């Protein structure tokens, strides 16, 4: 039982709702189509969660090995940092989760496309391999992109592009303007979560040589960047739900209310420790937004 708790801690369950937000939004836009498949929807959720767990295991391993997770770090203690799992055991966990993720992804791909298009199968299989690589390479290795200011770009790509656009395409084999706009919005909100995480850890990251975009921009620049990200994301949500004539268009805006107050807190913040609850607020608000979009389009 104790070992299960350790692995659940390494999986960082609080990060999983954000990982499925894009899947909810991409599928929400397909709900009124006769070809919509609930089986594919569930498989997408499971696949997205498995990729996120790989990323969390790898992040624990990579930051632990590099010494980034140390006594000066503000965030929650990691399992490798605390000695709850050894490097070898955690590495094996990454391998096992990667295998599970690829099995889920391949099942999803073949159920979605069958033998109707080998091009789609090859493209989505390549995306699956790329997803595993990206999850692992964020902090592991000498050229970990999370240590070179590239984390934001990859979060935008995967949490927005691959998640929202990919799930929509798997269902309908086409794309549309609203799905592009919502993919960008969810991606930007997800980048905001990473930006808050990096703002909280800025001093320690700079000390150990982890050059996140926040370290590069500095405290004031990171706040401006955060404001721009969230402002564009909110405008995109407004563009879709005010102009696309959805019956219950107002429901998703409920999730945006806490974010207005959140921006004021971030702009005035001077203590990185106080950003940890804001990180949770944005992650949960993004998930709530995605859930409300799904409910709005399901009942509307």
Task: Give a structural overview.
By secondary structure, the protein is mainly alpha-helical. It has one domain. Helix content is 74%, strand content 0%. The chain is built from 13 helices and no strands. The longest helix is centred in the C-terminal third of the chain and has 31 residues. It is globular, with a radius of gyration of 19 Å.
Order of helices and strands: HHHHHHHHHHHHH
- Largest sheet descriptor: none
Q: How much of the sequence is in beta strands?
A: under 5%
**Using only CA atoms, what is the Rg?**
19 Å
Mean pLDDT level: 93
Count of discrete structural domains: 1
Which class best fits the helix and strand makeup?
Answer: mainly alpha
Residue share in helix? over 70%
Q: What is the number of helical segments per DSSP (H or I, 4+ residues)?
A: 13
* Anisotropy-based shape: globular
Total number of strands? 0
The CA-CA distance between the termini, in Å, is 44 Å
Q: List low-pLDDT spans.
A: none
């Amino acid at each position: 039982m104790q070992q299960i708790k350790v692995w659940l801690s390494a999986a960082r369950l609080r990060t999983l709702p954000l990982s499925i937000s894009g899947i909810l939004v991409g599928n929400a836009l397909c709900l009124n189509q006769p070809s919509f498949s609930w089986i594919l929807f569930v498989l997408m959720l499971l696949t997205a969660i498995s990729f996120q767990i790989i990323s969390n295991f790898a992040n624990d391993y990579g930051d632990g090995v590099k010494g980034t997770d140390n006594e000066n770090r503000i965030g929650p203690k990691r399992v490798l940092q605390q000695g709850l799992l050894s490097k070898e055991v955690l590495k094996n966990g990454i391998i096992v989760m990667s295998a599970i993720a690829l099995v889920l992804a391949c099942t999803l791909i073949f159920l979605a496309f069958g033998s109707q298009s080998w091009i789609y199968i090859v493209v989505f299989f390549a995306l699956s391999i790329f997803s595993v690589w990206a999850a692992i390479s964020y902090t592991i290795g000498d050229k970990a992109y999370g240590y070179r200011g590239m984390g934001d770009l990859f979060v935008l790509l995967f949490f927005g592009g691959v998640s929202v656009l990919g799930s929509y395409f798997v269902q309908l084999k086409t794309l549309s303007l609203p799905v592009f706009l919502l993919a960008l919005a969810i991606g930007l909100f997800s980048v905001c979560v990473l930006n808050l995480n990096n703002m909280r850890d800025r001093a320690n990251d700079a000390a150990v040589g982890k050059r996140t975009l926040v370290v590069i921009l500095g405290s004031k620049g990171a706040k401006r960047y955060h404001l721009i990200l969230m402002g564009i994301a909110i405008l995109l949500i407004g563009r879709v739900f005010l102009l696309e004539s959805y019956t219950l268009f107002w429901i998703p805006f409920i999730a945006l209310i806490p974010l207005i107050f959140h921006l004021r807190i971030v702009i005035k913040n001077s203590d990185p420790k106080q950003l940890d609850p804001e990180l949770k607020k944005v992650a949960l608000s993004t998930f709530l937004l995605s859930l409300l979009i799904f409910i709005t389009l399901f009942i509307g």
